[in-house]
Amino acid sequence: MKIAIVGAGIVGVTTAYELASDGHEVTVFEQRSAVAEEASFATAGLLAPHLPSPWALPGFGPRLRLMGAHATMRLAGGISRANVGWLLRWRRAARAGSAPAATVERLAQYSQARLKAIASQHELDFEATDGRLVLLRTEEDRARLEPTLQVLRDCGVGLREISAEVARQIEPGLSPEAPLAGVIHLPDAGAGNSRLFAQLLRHGIQAAPGQQDSGVQFAFNTRVERILATPTGVALQGEPDVRRFDAVVLCAGTASAALLAGLGLRLPMVAVHGYSVSAPLREATHAPRASVVDAAQQVAITRLGQRVRIAGGAELGGAVAEHHAPTLQRLYRTLNDWFPGGAQLSSGLQIWRGARPLLPDGAPVVGDSGIPGLWLNIGHGAGGWALACGCARAVADQIAGREPEVSLDGLGWSRF
Ligand SMILES: Cc1cc2nc3c(=O)[nH]c(=O)nc-3n(C[C@H](O)[C@H](O)[C@H](O)COP(=O)(O)OP(=O)(O)OC[C@H]3O[C@@H](n4cnc5c(N)ncnc54)[C@H](O)[C@@H]3O)c2cc1C
Fold this sequence. Notes:
It is built from 9 helices and 18 strands. With 416 residues, it is an alpha/beta fold.
């Protein structure tokens, strides 16, 4: 089949890989000049398990608080009615425990297995690490994490509660003065550089110049203005000529809702912004070896090659991309609490503000759109990197008329 993909973030690139592997003729349309320039640019790098990641799903992690010194989400001004509606739905899902947690967690596990297979087959070195510590500052943190741990156990994820001493054997850089009330060790957790993975995969699958019939065509600097449903298939508008395809897979991240609105489909997706700071290693023995998550602060600290990345924060609204200094200070403080002296914070920093494309139940939409020929792989929220390879394989299977190997129950468009 002749298939178009809209968006070359981590989701679009992995989808292109799987569809090309199935023998389809694939073209990826991307408004930017390279892959992974938007939400996939500088993620915390966390792969499965997904549930203990910051902002994974409603009902897991700290309560949604919008006001005061302990606010977990900042209202960045310019809140729309749609944002208010989204907040109410997220809160309702948290109270009702209605997020499809086990399905998403199993999808993350499947995705990690698929990612490892792809990386090993093509020898992709994407600064991967194994193992994660979830750091608990208080007994209250531990109690709050219990529902997450229960879902992980039910899904067969390996985990154990360890002492501070054992934690320091696993992560020798952990400060002896760190405020530790408990530690959960996730030995099979993964992490890695999402942008680097997307870049390496793109180079592996891109068609050679002038070759039309093998490999994936990337149309960079090409913005898709509209998706058109026509009696003869799906068409894309954005270039001088409207192009027709047998199928289109929408992977446009936070821009997906606007493209779908043009077709009369309403999706309650918002952009919840967060930050990451990538800093050069200062003293390797004081830095993390792999990834850690501060459960109370909802901050991840990840080793990526010769750098340390600290990520967290949640902002709703505010189209202006001004950096919020107190949130950045919280990231620095959290790093300093756990790994003082591990990273060089005086120069060579990369500070990034990126958007999580979040639906009110935290889970993505993967599958058909109800419009013949239009497929959706969108709304991955805080887990686009962790879920990308699995969702990509599942969509490719669905397009081929095969039952995916992993359950997508509750992740369809019809739930909205
Ligand atoms: C601070 C922070 C930390 C995070 N940490 C993690 C983590 O540790 N693990 C994890 O799994 N996830 C993490 N996430 C979430 C993750 O970043 C996203 O879920 C993921 O990147 C979404 O990927 P995507 O491909 O759907 O979107 P994007 O990467 O945004 O890709 C969409 C692409 O579509 C293109 N596009 C949009 N509209 C059009 C159009 N009209 N025409 C052509 N092209 C178009 C865009 O330019 C973009 O390149 C984090 C997010 C933030 C903000």
